[in-house]
Every structure is written in C-alpha cells, then in structure tokens.
Amino acid sequence: MGWYDALFTFGENVDRPGCSMPTAAARWRPTRQPIVLDQWPVEPGNAEAPFTTVMNFTAYGERIHAGRVYGQKDRSFEPFVDLPRQLGESMEIALNAAPDVCRRLERGGWRLVNPLAVTRPPEAYRRYLVGSRAEFAEEFFDARTVLGALLDVSLAECAR
C-alpha cells in the first residue's frame, strides 16, 4: 500500500492500543463519514416503526491473520438471527445476502427489504432511516455480550 500518501478507515480504534485488527503494517488514520446536517433535519421518531439496519452480509471471503479468522456479518451476526422473535420486537433488515441466509433471518423474525429500494437514490435512504424506530447496529464487538445485555434490557427502553 506504499503507493498511497495516506490511508483512512471508518474504524476509529484501528492502529490504536487494544485493537487487534490487522493493519498490513500501514498507519491508518480514523475518519468519519461526511454528513451534511442541513440535509438531515431532526424529526420525531415513530414508536410504531420497526428497528432497522442496512447491511451487506458478505462482500468478500474470510481473511486469516495470525491464526485469527476475520469475517463480516456472516460471522458476527449469528447471535442476532433470532433476536426479533426472542424480544417480540419488529425488526427489519435491508439486506444483500444469499437466499438461505434470508430464509434463516425471516424464521428468526426479521422482516427483509430490498436494500437497493431503500438506499437509492439518497432521498430514499434518508426516508428509510427517518421512518425507522431506531437503528440496530451490530458492529465489531463481542456479540454474545451485547445479546445478553439486550435480553436483560428491553429494546423499548434502549430506544428512549
């Protein structure tokens, strides 16, 4: 990667103490996705709407570094497959995934929507997010710990 002058990542802890993500011996600088706040006016939430998330289940295969396997949602989302059914909450995913994955998620209580329909054009994406009760974001953490916490505290309380 020496042909780049600078490398940026949305992972804010990459290349910092305690972060085990491989860096390919490069120095990564954290950045955030740019947001034009004027395009996102504050609007009241809809308590009747589902919790939502937009994701790509797997865009590339697993990577192995120093004996540890790194994957994507296909590896980290497993503890959440049955979450809507377990909590009795309406939860929706705009998802790009294989048909067998979609069927498993639907059996777990997730409502699936076409990700292209809710993310293109940008106005559709904004409407989708604004129409959500709240974003369900499973990111790079120990999902088992979070699942236990969610089962102890109702999602309705978390959304307040």
Order of helical and strand elements: EEEEEHHEHEHHEHH
Largest pleated sheet: 4 strands, parallel
How much of the sequence is in beta strands? 15-25%
- Please tally the helical runs, counting DSSP H or I stretches of 4 or more residues: 7
Stated plainly, the CATH topology of the largest domain is called: Rossmann fold
Share of helix, binned: 25-40%
> What radius of gyration results from the CA coordinates?
18 Å
Number of domains: 2
- Gross morphology is globular
What would CATH call the architecture of the largest domain? Answer: 3-Layer(aba) Sandwich
Note the quaternary state here: single chain
Give the tally of β-strands.
8
CATH class assignment of the largest domain: Alpha Beta
Q: What's the average pLDDT?
A: 82
Question: Structural class given helices, strands, pairing?
Answer: alpha/beta
First CA to last CA: what distance?
44 Å
Q: Regions with pLDDT < 50 over 5+ consecutive residues? A: 140-160
Could you characterize what this model shows?
The protein has 160 residues and is an alpha/beta fold. The protein has helices at residues 73-76, 83-87, 99-107, 115-119, 122-130, 143-152, 155-158, and strands at residues 7-9, 28-30, 51-56, 63-65, 68-70, 91-96, 110-113, 134-135. It folds into two domains: 1-29, no CATH class; 50-158, Rossmann fold, CATH 3.40.50. A four-stranded parallel beta sheet has the order 7-6-3-8. A two-stranded parallel ribbon has the order 1-2.
